[in-house]
Amino acid sequence: MSGGARERIAALRTEIAHHDERYYGLDDPQIPDADYDQLLRELRALEGAHPELITPDSPTQRVAGAPSAAFEAVVHEVPMLSLDNAFSDEEVRAFERRAAERLGTDEPLEYLAEPKLDGLAVTAIYRAGLLERAATRGDGFKGEDVTANVRAIRAVPLRLHAKAPALLEVRGEVFMPLQGFERLNREAEARGEKTFVNPRNAAAGSLRQLDPRITAARPLQMYCYGLGSVSGWDLPERQSELLEALRQWGLPVCPEGRRVQGVEGCLQYYRQMGERRAHLAYQIDGVVYKVERLAYQTRLGFLSRAPRWALAHKFPAEEAMTRVRAIEWQVGRTGAVTPVARLEPVFVGGVTVSNVTLHNFDEVQRKDVRVGDTVVVRRAGDVIPEVVRVIEARRPPHTDAVALPQRCPVCHSEVLKPAGEAVARCTGGFSCPAQRQEAIRHFAGRLAMDIEGLGEKVVAQLVERGTVRSPADLYGLGAADLQSLERMGEKSAANLIAALGRSKQTTLPRLLYALGIREVGEATALALARHFGDLDALIEAADEHPEQIEQVAEVGPVVAAHVHAFFAAPEHRALIGRLREAGVTWAPFAARPADLPLAGQTFVLTGTLAGMTREQAQEALSALGAKVSGTVSKKTRYVVAGEAPGSKLTKARALAIPILDEAGLRQLLEAHRR
Ligand code: IVH
User: Fold this and answer.
1) What is the tens place of the pLDDT at every residue in 479-522?
2) Which candidate, 57, 64, 100, 101, places its Cα nearest to that of 262?
3) Is 116 a known active-site residue?
């Protein structure tokens, strides 16, 4: 029987190691977790019956032995170096110039480019294919022995595949993927324990545990990127071949590494990873370029602590810490009372952030953000900045949890938060100056009635003075009403009156959007216009057959209910009557999708636009019938390039596709909107 058990045990160990490699090394699991657990259980049971067959490389032995009292010091035979940093394209160019000069070559150098993982460096020594020792980087010369903990990380193989060198010291980064990090923090929060500030701290904290059982329970990953001491192996010629060999021996290597040509290849990779960054499963803080040819690496050598053949090109930090100065409540067009954190200005993700929305009261409670708190602020790509979490350890004494205001901060009407809804609302309706002001601003907006010159400051004054109480009042404004406003001369007043006159001739989708029906954005307004053709048909449906509204593509029951409620309100019917009386007209809307001005044209967006989000640009384009795609091809009509565009721009240039900047996009949208 023991012979059969021996074979089964060997087969199970190989199979489990294979699944670890699929999962961590190749990011391509073949079996569900439950099946994996079943294999491990079977192995445990067999080893329990045959303890003489247990070996240290068995997956059941990842966590073995008692917690230690302290970490022993380990001297690194080959020092663990750090990297020089570059923050600009120019610094990358200078790096290449220096390297080429030293090598005495004019040819563009080849590089292996890979993400700069945000974790901590670890070295692992395999002798005869078995994991023998692992250590942290420490000061680069001396680290701590964390063998027991590294053994507990499933990503790290305990035994390498056949043909591995007699001695192999691999170096890489231990890090915590984002999903695992968030789960860990959620669980800590639920238990009322302290949370980790970021995945890097979580990874470091998890690895520096005296009890390896704790490390084993943490979702850690490791990617290998280099070597320390090696014997019994002839090094290949290239860095990329070295990584491939590590992969072949069963070690996890980041799949994002690429061979690139010269500085331009490096910079292109940097931009590509900058775009991919937000979609990666783990945090990276830049990319690393390494000269491909190992012979060149040897010739270039080191300068103090960093190699001359490698460079870290950092991204602008996406997270930063700052202090909450105040939490204020803003009242929106629909009465939504929204908390906004006023921050000590902080530079993050390439911009200075001093205000950030906290979205709603539930969110404030969930994050327990208080005035005086130190918070982590995140701004990734073109996503609006957010408060990620509070650093509770830095909370000053005697703070109070934020309370929902009982009364509207503007009109003092009651604030209600219906059970089950996240949003609290001022019940003042149009009597609330804040709601009035926002409704009128929205009405005049560029995508709505497009009344040029009717900006925030003018609207604020008109509402404050009571000159304008409803959007319809705008059309009764005379030169005298306007000229008395601050910073409004005769000329601008005349211009504004002319703009008001022009805005009277509008389209049905614009009018519907301008009315400010809850949840009716530009795209929904267009869908409603397309479906009903004119306003009276829509009003009739809202009155008599509300179920018809739900039949409109893109309209669900919630939106349908808002449309119904909007037209049921007598003040809204009165508003439409008054607009008509003032001479506002719109033609019946008969456009079929194929008649839309940009029908059949495909647009690709890249980079960040200053004045609109990617979603807004996308919505505006699709409202005009255009298709927005993620890939550039010969069929692309235009590529819209904002700030820091990526590889799509390069591709567009290669295919000679017309490129629009933000101003060009605006012009095109404006031209087709009327
Ligand atoms: S190579 C001699 N490659 O960055 C080369 N390091 O700032 C030394 N790191 O201590 C390191 N990703 O912890 C290298 N792909 C990568 C890396 C990487 C992250 C870390 C590593 C190192 C630090 C240096």
Assistant:
1) 989 988 888 889 999 999 999 999 999 999 999 999 999 989 88
2) 100
3) yes
Check: CB of residue 410 under 8 Å from CB of residue 436. no
Q: Which amino acid is at 87?
A: F
Distance CA 623, CA 322 (A): 40
- Residues 518-559: tens digit of each pLDDT: 989 888 898 898 888 889 999 999 888 888 888 887 788 888
User: How far does CA 461 lie from the centroid of its chain?
Assistant: 38
Please compute, for residue 492, the number of CA atoms within 13 A of its CA located in the half-sphere on the CB side: 14
The CA distance from 401 to 399, in Å, is 7
Say what the pLDDT of residue 352 is: 86
What domains can be seen in the chain, in order of their start residue? 3-61 (1.10.287.610), 75-314 (3.30.470.30), 319-416 (2.40.50.140), 504-590 (1.10.150.20), 593-672 (3.40.50.10190)
- Of the candidates 492, 503, 417, the one whose C-alpha atom is nearest the C-alpha of residue 458 is 492
With contact defined as beta carbons under 8 Å apart, do 415 and 425 qualify? yes
SS3 category, 636: strand
Q: Hey, what are 111's tokens?
A: 């590089």
Question: Is the overall model pTM greater than 0.90, yes or no?
Answer: no
Q: Which residues line ligand 1 (CB under 6 A)?
A: 81-83, 114, 116-117, 121, 137, 173, 225-226, 288, 307, 310, 312
Work out the angle at residue 558's Cα, subtended by the Cα atoms of residues 418 and 623, and round it to the nearest 5 degrees.
130
Q: How confident is the model at residue 26 (pLDDT cuts 50, 70, 90)?
A: confident
How deeply is 49 buried, as exposed, middle or buried, from its count of CB atoms within 10 A (0-12, 13-18, 19+)? exposed
Compute, in angstroms, the gap from residue 212 CA to the centroid of ligand 1. Answer: 25
List strand residue ranges (DSSP E) for 292-335, in order: 302-303, 306-307, 310-314, 319-331
| Residue position matching structure tokens 């219906």 | 418
Say if strands 351-357 and 374-378 run parallel, antiparallel, or are unpaired: unpaired
CA of 125 to the centre of ligand 1 (A): 18
Q: Catalytic one among 116, 290, 367, 648? A: 116
CA separation for the pair 102, 299 (Å, rounded): 8
Among the atoms of ligand 1, which is closest to the Cα of residue 121?
13
Copy the structure tokens of residue 277.
């960054």
How far away, in angstroms, is 121 Cα from ligand 1 center?
Answer: 7
Q: Helices (DSSP H) in 303-410: which residue ranges?
A: 361-367
* Position in ligand 1 atom list of the atom nearest CA 114: 15
How does 97-125 read in b/e, with b if 16+ C-beta sit within 10 Å? eebbeebeeeeebbbbbbbbbbbbbbbbb
148 to 24, 133, 312: CA distances (angstroms): 19, 8, 30
pLDDT in tens, 211-260: 999 999 999 999 999 999 999 999 999 999 999 999 999 999 999 999 99
